[in-house]
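note to self: the first set is below, dont mix up w the second
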Amino acid sequence: MKDFIIPPMDLQDDRDMGTPARVGAPVTLTIDGFSVTVPEGTSVMRASAELGIDVPKLCASDNMEAFGSCRLCVVEIEGRRGTPASCTTPVTEGMVVHTQSSKIRKIRKGVMELYISDHPLDCLTCSANGDCELQDQAGAVGLREVRYTSGENHYDPANNGTLAQGDARARGTRGADAADLGNPLFIPKDNSNPYFTYDPSKCIVCSRCVRACEEVQGTFALTIEGRGFDSRVSAGAADDNFLTSDCVSCGACVQACPTATLQEKSVAAMGTPERSVITTCAYCGVGCSFKAEMQGDELVRMTPWKHGKANRGHSCVKGRFAYGYANHTDRILNPMIRDTIDEPWREVSWEEALGFAAKRMRGLQEKYGKKSIGVITSSRCTNEETYLVQKLTRAVFHNNNTDTCARVCHSPTGYGLGQTYGTSAGTQDFDSVEHTDVAMIIGANPTDGHPVFASRLKKRLRAGAKLIVVDPRRIDMVKSAHISAQHHLPLRPGTNVAVVSALAHVIVTEKLYDEAFIRERCDWNEFQEYAEFISQDRHSPEQTESLTGVPSAELRAAARTYATGGNGAIYYGLGVTEHSQGSTTVMGIANLAMLTGNIGRRGVGVNPLRGQNNVQGSCDMGSFPHELPGYRHVKHPDVRAMFEEVWGVPIDPEPGLRIPNMLDAAVEGTFKGLYCQGEDILQSDPDTHHVAAGLAAMECVIVHDLFLNETANYAHVFLPGSSFLEKDGTFTNAERRINRVREVMKPKNGYADWEITQMLANAMGANWTYTHPSQIMDEIAATTPSFANVTYELLEERGSVQWPCNEEHPEGTPLMHVDGFVRGKGRFVVTEYIATDEKSGPRFPLLLTTGRILSQYNVGAQTRRTDNVIWHQEDVLEIHPHDAESRGVNEGDWIKLASRAGETTLRATLTDRVSPGVVYTTFHHPVTQANVITTDFSDWATNCPEYKVTAVQVSPSNGPTDWQEEYNAQAEMSRRILPAAE
């Protein structure tokens, strides 16, 4: 395939070097007469590749350790007997290697002849034609004929099947045609996975797929079963296939396969790609880089880019395969308007839709005041698009009524880390995990929410690092293939602060803290005050055990492991932030890192795992009502002056409304208009009844999205959005990495999202003249200190950078707080535990917590419109068998889930993943509307909703609740679209 990479990165070598790179003392050797110097431990194969000498190979790949099974890469080494495999032979000083000789050529040709003799020769019609390593290597070794004839020990090319005569494990017969061949058994293709096929007839048993599943993904779902001719890849037990096995469809095996044994169905259907564009995944906050491989303007497949610094060539099922939503028939491609929400939609031109929206929004301001309208930015859109939306409200609406879903998930991160360290982001890069000795996961589920990072963490755990998991559920990281946590602290939902304080209590009272670090890097007087507070007996594990449910001995052991185990890194997620004390917990986590000196070097730090692709970026871009881009408060005259000079308009010094305030004001009659880009607040925000009431009370709701989502039920204007494949820009991932998003295809709706926002602004009287997102980034850099040196040219040159990127750090900052904290001295904050107002009792005795699942993403608007639904067709409630038995609930039963806020129905699944008294569900399907259950309680500092603690009752149900039926009827009515005029 010809790569058309935008931009061409001359320094990036996409060749497969055969074996991984090493770090060590320099070693000089001679290969085919050429001298080369490489690090100690480098293989002869990789050293040859460094010289541009490609040694033939089939079982080797540079993202896995050498295996040495194919014997195609043999070389001669002066002074040594035989012909060793170059992939498993490390270089030595003065070594003299010959990669070409008549002897080697004869061996390689003979080896390849054996492979081809067992391989179907259907190259012209094979889906891997032109993209097959076996085909390429046969040419490389000069194989022109095969002397062997078919027999019982070889594949029969005429039948294109796997002959397995006498093999009892075979799962079918070839039918009538088999009679002429002695009735051999035939193993058919496995088409069970929606995205790729397994054809055993084309397997050369190189084991690359098995090793990729083990070494790269860490799932250990694949094995080689049988011996000799009967050897083949197996996905689990005898009756398993690639769908029913432990396979998580990450695509590592497909990418590793050198033949068409494992092949994307899209390639089989559309043909081999001819060009590719490097872009960034639009799912979770890991920010994986992909090659979007194309035929013309059609996307054939997404392949993880080996030079992506966040994913290092790996992927998950969502980024790798779940891109089909961009072409789904549900997608709206034409603007639509309606006067009232009980009318059907009617398609109109862009000019009419934008004119209608502008006239309504200006009319509302004239009638109700300039603060009667506002915006919601998106964590799915680019930095440039998000920047323009917050600029719209400040420079065109002339108020600060801007908020974002990032506040609904991670605003406590910004507040907590800002208070303690002086910056609102994680401290490390993902590569740092390779140096971690003890990892603590708090309130996160990496295997489901951030699977590519989870694979990297699991690899480190298999190498000997220790793991502490703090979570109400027994997530996969607690125990799965070849890893297990040293400590699992299954705390009661809502008691995060108490658990973190108990960990700190042990560290302080047992004097496990790093006094030298604290004296040098933190305020010693503040530490002494904090130490006095945290040393009180009420914070001890013994005193808090009855509150948290965590055994005191286990908690003490976990604290000692973290404090004394070497490099300690904390990774946390929404299970920390989405609480009434989310900000307090973040500050407590920051305290733990400072106590132990685990900050400012590789392998340590405090690392929030952002849920959506651009949560970090939407915060950086000033999406909060009190902060301009760069986390600077609107009350500061010097900050406003900078933007006023660039924008040419005055900026209101008063903070605006957050989403809950907008909804409250709407119900009260003072907030009347909303422009919502790329968010579905009716499904994603808490207390669905209140959200619906607020939206219904507004007189103009503009929804800018790909699909008619749940919020659009209450919209008056629908502006069709563009997918990440159809736009240029940048995303900022969880490690502060600014990654380029590149246009893979032209927008199907006609415009990228930033262009639509600009057109709306201009329709309301602005005079914006951007012609490319790079100009928006230039404006961001001119006004935001942490982005001061960021340009598209720099990103094209380096691939990506991590902010701060400015004069002091012109190439970005992988590690924060190396020589000192951004705020100067690190600040210890007293973290008093205050119980949430949401409490269980006789009426609602269980505690509900929520989360995500691997195959689905957020509210499911994208993943539900792909084949990922095969793994998760509905939200279900996890309930402990004891709680289920006492309520008469069996596996798969419909149950009613009720809280003080509302009720819904869904199916139950019985599991001991949750403790008695705790239930768990996801929120990916709107038919369930799980957030009708959640309350309006929120974090004391940021209003981040308390999704993770809701008192509920579970009881058997015969069907949907009255509210669900009413909601579904209203949703169906609201999505009517009048047929286009003739």
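second set (the one i keep forgetting abt)
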Amino acid sequence: MKQLAFLCLGVALLAACRKDDVIICDPLATATFADLRAAAPAVQTFTFDLGRAQSLRTTGGATISFPANSFALPNGTLATGQATLRVRELHSVSDMVLAGLHTDVGGRTNALLVSAGEFNIQFWQGATRLQWQRSVTTANTPQPTLSTPVPASGLDTTRMFLWKLPFAANGALPVKADSVGWQPAALQVNPQGQFFWPSLPASSGLYTAVLPLDSISWTNFDQYWRPTSNAVWTWNQVRVPAGASESRVYLRPAGYTSLCRTFGTNDPTLWENHFPNGTDVQAIVIQIRDGQFYFGTQRYNWQPNVVMAPTLEALSSAEVVQRIRQL
């Protein structure tokens, strides 16, 4: 049933999303939920000369650098003249909830990521979306890079890696993308022909990654969340009131910049996922019922076979945004 539910989400998503929207679209988003997305960190724009090397710095302290003549048109020819970088950066759990993005690992169970920054990066020339020139992503030429400051909190000592979301052309979400999650973005081949995934050590207070060829979309600096050795993962549920036109239910390990989706069940009032026993978890619930926002959270020491039921309060969209920013 989970697979069927995600397939239905994906079909609705393709009908609802605009192809070239820098904001991640939600399959069942309403005008009210658009108010939450509008409160997410704003898209930043930078206009630049394609014929000159660039180093563009965001308001969050990230830097996107690339050599001259780095971009191609959709037909593969060199792009020249002026272009625009559009970038949205998410640095907190509040940012992720407002933007509707998580830190789940694609195709893995018992795995969750902790983020040092999520970025949607797009390059445009007028109404045409540009792509990296293949030559700038080879080791023999200067390569495009993304650097982001090491957060002061919300991480542990686990190694950092570069991740990507498997978006289709022009940034549209493919079917079931919301159930796929983040995937490794920078697999390499060693001299023995074996694939490996380089970690990103911090240097001078920054994580820096070379951006791969298919990286112009959602990119994430993330480490694996390591709860405890020999952790026992068990399933629990979150119960929400009936009658909602949309429910969004998240779980987060308290103290970490990490956000986990939950899965719908045959009962529309029950949402579930799994965490290690003993984890300090916060459930976050946002609902719309009869055009009214409802919001609530609950902290819980994770134990098996327990149903959480956060108390939800009727709030305006502005009040919900304020509560989310306090997470």
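remember for set 2: The CA atoms of residues 40 and 298 lie 23 Å apart.
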